[in-house]
Amino acid sequence: MTSLGAVVWASSRSIIDIDATVLLQAALFVLSFLVLRGLVFKPLLRVVDERRRQTQGLRDEAKHLEADAEARLKKLNRVVAATKAETATERERLRLESKQQEHEVLQAAKDEAARVAEAARRTVAAKRAEAEREAEAEARGLATAIAGRLAGRPL
Question: Which of 4, 71, 98, 127 has a CA-to-CA distance to 143 between 20 and 30 Å?
Answer without folding.
Answer: 127
